[in-house]
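Protein modeling request. Please complete all fields; requests missing the sequence field cannot be processed.
Requester role: graduate student
Desired output: 3D structure, token encoding
Chains: 1
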Amino acid sequence: MTAVPETDGSLTKETDRTAVKRSLTALLAGEGIGWVGSCVHRMALPVLAVLHLRADPGQLALLAFAAEVPMLVVALPAGAMADRYALRTILISTDVAAAAVVSLIPAAAVLDVLTMPLLYAVGFVLGSLHTLHMAASMAAIPLLADGARRRHEANARFTEVITISGAAGTALGTALVAAVGTAQAILADALSYLVSAWCATRIRALPVSDRKREVRLAVVGQIREGVGFSAHNPLLRALFVALTAPGVSTGLIASLLSYLLLITVQVGTTGLGLVMAASSLGGLTGARLAPRLVRRCKPGPVLAYAWTVYPLMQIPLLVARPGITWLAVLIVGAFGQFAAATCVGTTQRSLQQSVSPPHLQARVQQTALWLHGGGRALAALAAGILATLTSVRTVMLIGIVILLMSAWALHRSPVRRLNAMDGAAP
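Delivered output (426 residues):
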């Protein structure tokens, strides 16, 4: 990657630093606003399917799968595209396209032609655009944050923004559905994508890469190069093998979590909202603490122990019963779980950016997301079958055991001995 801004190569160093800072702010602002809107439609689509189209559980599961499966089929090509084309162009074009696609839902509702196949299609296309957009935004972070420490802090800020926006988007979606109706509420998502696109146009200091080599290389070859580098690097191999486990576990547990809390533990909608709020607060706390913990305790121990805390905080799900005491325990567990998860996420992402060559940044990142998101999509599809054959709590137990095995493997890997964010070990 070159260090030359896209707009003016004659900028002074001071002006260049200011431009980079403003560009990073514009990127984070756009991602936050876009994520608020995305959470509106992610909350509204299932409501639209169940209450307006009378979808059965199988159709609802298929709708969730349609939104998740792009991570399995699009993530790796998205990494190749992010390493080949201008990142700002990808950010703007995916936002504009997403605004047009999501607008189909309220338009179809007005014309009385809204159907489940249309929701499946919209969910898949939006998921694909989101995957490509996130590939570009994550690839932009290390380019706008020079140095390992600044890179980790920028990744932490990115996670903070996404976490806060997720909580705000869920609350906004609930309010809009009640105020203007489900289909009309989705228009807020279209507007958020357009605002996000405008923010992307303000990214003026994003460095560009020399794309000549990538242009000559076929997309399949680019994907193979990124996956091959990840597989042969000892640090990345250990991290990515461990990353697959949380994807599978999340697919198993998250698919049935609402059912367990509402039907088995009987927390009610208020209790469910409190657990979700605690999750968001935990995620924000973990993102804020991660850089400080790494500076004090080194990245290896932080990853290993936070990865262990993550499944331990979910054990109460296996034994919780109705009652205010158990609700309090679940709230504390949700806080600890997501604090550990975001601490792991920001740290491992910063590590992989440090050890990856500039021309492979996006492809390595997407390899990680493909392993995590692909496992989540397939596990979500299997969760319903397993719950039918066994029980909901058994499925939860399987997910937690997978995470504990992953934590044990990470403790025995080279990751545990890392002393610096550049991948150095004793």
